[in-house]
Design brief:
Keywords: Iron, Iron-sulfur, Metal-binding. By secondary structure, the protein is α/β, with parallel strands linked by helices. It has one domain: TIM Barrel, CATH 3.20.20.70. Helices cover 33% and strands 13% of the residues. It contains twelve helices and ten strands.
Length: 357
């Protein structure tokens, strides 16, 4: 399946030029040949951790397609390496490439907890659900060491503030104790991203994420202790995972999921070049077919930036996907719904403890 140039264990196969840089560089063949002869690596493959101290941590989301008003990302960049990730482009704002840099240079927001507490204590702040991982996964591998996400959840609990989260990592199970306390007062929703039921597909699309088995186990464990959990099948990529809608929704239903959502793949910004390069190395036998089908979903382009259509696509294939999800929900998730997040408690806990008078 893979071409000789494929880099195993990573999503992106190259660093594309940063659109904000005045200059760009490229790997010349003579340099690559020299490295091969000398037995040297042409590029650094290890993950680098970079400490940052932002001034704010809660972000207003202006897109009407996303379904959330505020997000919070404790990390920038993501070692999971999902090849299709829309967040890759945001790494360019930090001076890095949306390609390999995105999964190798991880920025850690060291003061995230302090900034969140400051926000929740503000007299002007009115409780509105804040979603962890609006951009990059809050449970990516380095969370095991830094535990920033766990501390953020404890802060949301302290101030009785509603929080949502989306992750591909089974590490969320570590925090079931905090999540149960939040769920007891309708203060949390958890979304688990499951793109495929096929482990081989997962391995090449999302190389450093939790296995499909572990994600399904996570859905089951969370739901078994009354933590509301839903699933995002995102993105749907034609001829890669588009045939799995019905069996996937059936499987997550049996694990206790309360709902399912989806998006259609769109390759915005630098991701078009990154994905095209990747698929020609990872799936050379079907690369042209997949890229052609993606273009058909977006009016002949790999990307559509228009609100209202960019997340669901257009045309016959997009209609078929929408219809399949409608049928799947009716068959396997009928009469299930997540409890509404509670925004009424926070005002009484703004100083970190309930007001008695």
């Amino acid at each position: 399946m893979f071409s000789e140039e494929y880099i195993k264990g990573r999503g992106a196969q190259l660093n594309v030029p940063n659109r904000f840089d005045q200059h760009s560089h490229e790997m010349r063949d003579d340099f690559l040949n020299y490295c091969a002869v000398e037995g040297d690596e042409a590029t650094e493959s290890r993950t680098t951790i970079i400490d940052t101290f932002p001034k704010t941590i809660v972000n207003k989301v202006t897109s009407p397609d996303v379904g959330l008003e505020y997000s919070l990302n404790p990390y920038q960049g993501c070692e999971h390496g999902c090849i299709y990730c829309y967040a890759r482009n945001s790494h360019e704002y930090w001076g890095y490439s949306a390609g390999l840099d995105f999964e190798q240079k991880i920025l850690v927001k060291r003061n995230a907890v302090e900034l969140l507490e400051e926000k929740l204590k503000s007299k002007s702040w009115k409780a509105t659900p804040i979603v962890l991982s609006g951009n990059t996964d809050c449970y990516q591998p380095i969370e095991k060491k830094f535990q920033i996400t766990r501390k953020l959840l404890q802060t949301f609990l302290k101030y009785r503030h509603p929080v949502g989260m989306i992750t591909k990592n089974a590490l969320v199970q570590r925090d079931i104790d905090v999540l149960r306390e939040l769920a007891a007062e309708n203060l949390v929703h958890v979304n688990i991203s499951v793109t495929s039921l096929q482990e081989e597909t997962r391995r090449i699309l999302e190389p450093r994420t939790a296995s499909i088995k572990r994600r399904l186990e996570t859905i089951e464990k969370l739901s078994s202790v009354s933590i509301p959990v839903s699933v995002m099948m995102a993105p749907i990529i034609p001829s890669i995972n588009s045939h799995e809608i019905m069996p996937l929704v059936k499987e997550i239903s049996e694990r206790g999921a309360l709902g399912v959502g989806y998006t259609i793949v769109r390759l915005n910004g630098a991701i078009g070049q990154i994905f095209s390069d990747w698929i020609r190395k990872a799936m050379p036998d079907r690369a042209d077919k997949v890229l052609h089908q993606i273009k058909n979903l977006h009016g002949g382009s790999l990307n559509d930036s228009r609100f209202g259509t960019r997340m669901k696509g257009e045309g016959e294939f997009a209609s078929q996907v929408a219809q399949q999800f409608k049928i799947a929900r009716n068959l396997y998730l009928k009469d299930r719904e997540r409890p509404k997040l509670n925004c009424k408690l926070h005002e009484e806990y703004k100083d970190g403890q309930m007001k008695l008078f």
